[in-house]
Write a structure and sequence with these properties.
The structure is a single chain. This protein has 14 helices and no strands. With about 425 residues, the chain is mostly helical. The protein has 2 domains: about 210 residues, Growth Hormone, Chain: A (Up-down Bundle); about 210 residues, MFS general substrate transporter like domains (Growth Hormone, Chain: A, Up-down Bundle), CATH 1.20.1250. The longest helix is centred in the middle third of the chain and has 33 residues.
């Protein structure tokens, strides 16, 4: 905690970083409100019934833009003014959220709402990519590693805070369509405010620099597909990195099944179809999971220095499987927030270790392509898992089979990771650049 605070103070001394950082915090606070609003509308709307398939669709809307658009975002981020993306993007997203609010308020077909929400999330994907690409332009080289460490963690934490604010606003606005519409309007207005912060930066401050050798856009898009294939081949020849990606993908698949199980249990088993009580319970679990994420950022550097990445990853996967099963299998509501903390801690620990392993073992020329594959796996496995769980979950969500599958999946993931990873794979750099 002391290290995180000192790192943050170090980069906050730079004026342009403060402006970019403020842009990120405001936008991701808005994201938290938006994600809460969509979650409430899709899963806890008192005017509709929700099943496991609808949960999978809702999660797909929230995450697929990040999987599909992510690898291609860099092509445009390296051609368009990044500062202008940070100014124009929030205006477009605000307009889309106002349109989505109108659709909800008028009880338009859900399909229309989801199309507009997908558009808003697509804009957000470009916005976040531009924020990441802009970072080297606002900090010195000496502070770049520190900035890479503190900004994603801060963004994740502020997103959880935004979700909490969304919950409080829902108590004020109401849980029906009108309340959801007001949440979307609030999110849009807050996101638009980030554009005013970006306007305080010079137009050419964030790049990109002119490159006469840069390929045409159409060729660059084709190169993205070829690059993903090349990145996959490169990873296949690096066992430690491949195993780390597999461990991360294992957690995300099991975590996606946990999410679908949790939503159905709270909606129909714990609260007997009381959407407001169910949403309050899920919000508590998300809060404890967020605490687990933050705890992982503090604990993982120490744990990997003591035990090594190759030992810490299977410890976390196995702990998630065993402790998670013990807490969830009785199907008592008290166990869910504790399980949320355990899975948040374990999952973020595995992610930090995977980030570090990939950065350490993959050649720099392939790093961008491999992290594109990483992002696709990170979100794609989560959505796939929710769809898989939809086929297994009963109407009330109470399924010992699903809990067992999750536990066994975590344990198998730990075993396979330990078997695949070279025994002499000791980390040469323990503190990750991406958290």
């Amino acid at each position: 905690m002391v290290s995180f605070a000192s790192d943050l103070r170090a980069v906050l001394r730079e004026r342009d970083f403060r402006r970019l950082f403020a842009t990120r915090l405001v936008s991701q606070f808005s994201d938290g409100i938006f994600q809460f609003g969509v979650t409430g509308y899709a899963f806890f709307n008192p005017e509709t019934q929700t099943n496991a398939l609808q949960i999978a669709v809702g999660l797909a809307v929230l995450l697929l833009p990040y999987s599909v658009l992510g690898p291609f975002a860099g092509v445009f981020i390296d051609r368009w003014s990044r500062r202008q993306i940070l100014v124009i993007g929030p205006v477009i997203k605000c307009a889309l959220l106002l349109l989505a609010a109108g659709l909800v308020a008028t009880s338009a077909p859900d399909a229309w709402f989801y199309v507009v929400a997908l558009g808003a999330l697509g804009v957000n994907r470009f916005f976040l990519a531009a924020l990441g690409a802009s970072l080297p332009h606002v900090v010195t080289k000496d502070n770049l590693m520190v900035a890479n460490a503190v900004t994603p963690t801060s963004g994740t934490v502020i997103t959880f805070v935004g979700a909490g604010a969304g919950y409080l606003l829902r108590l004020v606005f109401g849980s029906g369509h009108g309340g959801t519409a007001l949440l979307l309007v609030t999110s849009g207005i807050v996101f638009a405010f980030s554009a005013t912060i970006a306007l305080s930066m010079a137009r050419d401050l964030l790049g990109p620099a002119y490159d006469p050798e840069r390929p045409q856009t159409r060729e660059a898009l084709r190169n993205v597909v070829r690059g993903l294939v090349d990145g996959l081949r490169h990873v296949a020849h690096h066992r430690a990195a491949a195993a780390a990606l597999g461990a991360m993908a294992t957690h995300r698949f099991m975590y996606g099944m946990c999410t679908a199980l949790l939503l159905m249990l709270y909606r129909y088993h714990f609260t007997l179809d009381d959407p407001d009580r169910a949403l309050a319970g899920v919000t508590l679990v998300l809060g404890t999971s967020g605490l687990g994420y933050f705890a992982a950022a503090l604990v993982t550097p120490w744990a990997t220095a003591r035990f090594g990445i190759t030992n810490w990853v299977p410890i976390m996967l196995a702990a998630a499987g065993v402790i998670g099963f013990a807490l969830v299998a009785p199907f008592q509501e008290w166990g869910m927030p504790v399980a949320g903390f355990v899975l948040g801690l374990a999952g973020q620990s595995v992610k930090i270790c995977a980030d570090t392993t990939v950065q350490r073992d993959i050649a720099d020329a392939y790093l961008g392509r491999v992290f594109s594959l990483y992002d696709m796996l990170f979100n794609g496995m989560y959505v796939l898992a929710a769809a898989f769980a939809a086929m297994l979950l009963p109407p009330d969500g109470r399924s010992l089979l699903v809990v067992t599958v999750i536990a066994v999946g975590y344990l198998l993931g730990a075993l396979v990771y330990r078997l695949v990873t070279p025994t002499d794979d000791q980390p040469r750099r323990q503190v990750p650049e991406r958290v």
